[in-house]
Specification:
By secondary structure, this protein is α/β, with parallel strands linked by helices. The strands form seven sheets. Strands 11, 12, 13, 14, 15, 16, 17, 18, 19 and 20 form a ten-stranded mixed sheet that branches. A four-stranded parallel sheet has the order 4-3-5-6. Helices cover 31% and strands 27% of the residues. The protein has 16 helices and 25 strands. Bound molecules: adenosine monophosphate (AMP). The site of adenosine monophosphate has 18 residues, from strand 13, strand 19 and strand 20.
């Protein structure tokens, strides 16, 4: 069945089967009826209090109220912007400056930043949700090319970029995921990725539109290995959605296999390269499950290609391919001048209905990456790749964007904030790789004169100051102090040279 409207597809379960479970916490199960009631109440509140279509921030972690706010916003015609609760203040400030939201639903306690937007606390949200909504009230939800959500991602200038995803973009993705991956009505999905990472869209919307449920797995459980593997079998998760990095952690537990966790039927990976060894291990551990590698950037709505992992596939390719492109989309391999490259490695360009309209309030960056091709919105991914008999093969990045534990980071973003630290004169951050995977971020730093007796004390002070402006996963693990940074012939910092140095051994 093709879904035509996201909100209607979700609400039909709340109307038809209000007791159907939608969100399964360890101590409480929420139903579709509750989700509909709460999101209706939030939509009514928004409709009454603010102008339609201004964006709304939803601040928190993996709480049920986050979902209710997302849906409430969409029902009332607003794009929502998920921000994870532990995001450093300076970063939140930059996002607010770009987005200019009308309201902030603060499911977790607000970080104290001053803003023009009205801040709605959890108590207030809960109060709003106790109000009955008149059945005569009609909503004007987000439709067609209107923005459904905005996800902020690392930007080279140090200012995050807000990718705008429309209702049409989201429909294109959801209809594909519900068709090509063996998902059936009412399945239980793992919800592990933070809502501010578009990987979460891979579980939230396919689950909710097909009457399925989400089982959140919070950081405290993930960080506690023993609890994680004690609870995992009891969660009865059927659809696993995660980065390969998270799977690598899980595979360290020998009992994580089809015998002990026998509910698992489908594995969906996205967000970074799926190492061949991980894929191989999974095939062996879960012989009855179906495992898929999918690929795509936030700018083209989560993923645009996918392939099922089989032994034949692994035997044929030295790196796991990123799959066949979804039916409504075209992928072109192009050179720098946007000319087609036949049978050669070039830039992966995606054109189709799931390609975003661009970055919020950022025409310059939008013009750099987005254009129209053969009448379709197109996006230059910055990924190198080639097409072989319809199969897309990934060949690394063409710029200095990297993935660390699935998180997308522009190295220039870290450089920019590192150079603003009071002890730092100049800095360049480079990745250390192992088997195509970033293991560590290494910072080369020219420090100002300082009074620290030992370098590690200087490093500690730098890390501390840096943590107020970048996400914790962007803080380099290793610092190397130098008198000056090497330059290329045209006077730029020679990052490639530094990368070679770090990766030489
Ligand atoms: P994000 O916008 O956070 O989803 O990051 C998108 C980027 O992650 C892509 O442009 C790729 O560089 C990388 N990526 C995503 N999925 C895969 C995959 N299956 N294999 C290799 N790289 C991937």
């Amino acid at each position: 069945m093709t879904i035509l409207n996201i909100i209607e597809a979700i609400d039909r379960w709340g109307i038809k089967e209000p007791n159907r479970p939608v969100y399964i916490e360890s101590n409480r199960t929420y139903t579709y009826g509750e989700l509909k009631k709460d999101s209706d109440a939030i939509a009514a509140y928004l409709q009454k209090n603010i102008e339609r279509s201004r964006p709304i921030v939803v601040y928190g972690e993996l709480e049920f109220e986050m979902l209710a706010c997302f849906l409430g916003a969409s029902k009332a015609g607003h794009a929502y912007i998920p921000i994870e609760a532990h995001t450093p203040k300076e970063r939140v400030e930059m996002i607010l400056a770009v987005a200019d939201p009308a309201m902030i639903f603060s499911v977790k306690e607000w970080n104290g930043l001053e803003t023009n937007a009205e801040i709605v606390s959890l108590e207030k949200i809960q109060d709003i949700c106790t109000k009955a909504v008149s059945s005569d009230l009609s909503f004007e939800p987000v439709v067609e090319s209107e923005t459904y959500y905005v996800i902020f991602t690392s930007g080279t200038t140090g200012v995050p970029k807000g990718v705008q995803i429309s209702h049409t973009n989201l429909l294109s993705f959801v209809n594909w995921e519900l068709t090509d991956f063996g998902i059936t009505e009412g399945m239980r999905f793992l919800s592990q990725a933070p809502y501010s990472f578009d990987l979460s869209v891979m579980d939230v919307y396919p689950a909710l539109t097909s009457g399925g449920s989400l089982t959140p797995m919070r950081k405290d459980v993930i960080n506690d290995f023993k609890t994680l593997f004690t609870v995992l079998p009891s969660l009865e998760i059927e659809v696993w959605v995660s980065t390969p990095s998270f799977m690598d952690i899980c595979l360290m537990e020998p009992t994580f296999d089809g015998e002990h966790v026998d509910s698992l039927k489908i594995f969906l990976f996205c967000g970074e390269e799926l190492p061949k060894a991980t894929a191989q291990k999974l095939l062996e551990r879960f012989p009855k499950a179906r495992i898929f590698n999918t690929y795509g950037p936030t700018e083209a709505t989560v993923a645009i290609s996918g392939v099922e992992i089989t032994q034949e596939l692994l035997d044929e390719y030295s790196r796991v391919p990123i799959g066949y492109v979804k039916e409504d989309t075209d992928v072109y391999i192009m050179n720098e001048d946007l000319e087609l490259q036949e049978d050669e490695v070039g830039e992966i360009v995606i054109a189709g209905p799931s390609v975003s309209k661009g970055y919020l309030h950022n025409p310059e960056k939008t013009a750099d990456a987005f254009f129209e091709y053969k009448g379709q919105p197109a996006y230059r991914t910055g990924d190198a790749g080639k097409l072989k008999n319809g199969m897309l093969i990934y060949d690394g990045r063409m710029d200095f964007q990297i993935k660390l534990h699935g998180y997308r980071i522009e190295l220039e973003d870290i450089d920019h904030h590192l150079a603003s630290v009071s002890y730092v004169k100049q800095a360049a951050v480079v990745p250390k790789y192992q088997n195509h995977k970033v293991q560590q971020l290494v910072a080369f730093v020219v420090a100002h004169p300082h009074d620290f007796e030992k370098e590690f004390k200087l490093t500690k002070a730098i890390k501390e100051e840096l943590s107020s402006s970048v996400m914790d996963y962007m803080i380099p693990q290793k610092f190397i102090y130098v008198d000056q940074l090497p330059l290329t012939a045209n006077g730029k910092i020679d990052r490639k040279g530094l990368m070679n140095e770090v990766n030489a051994t």
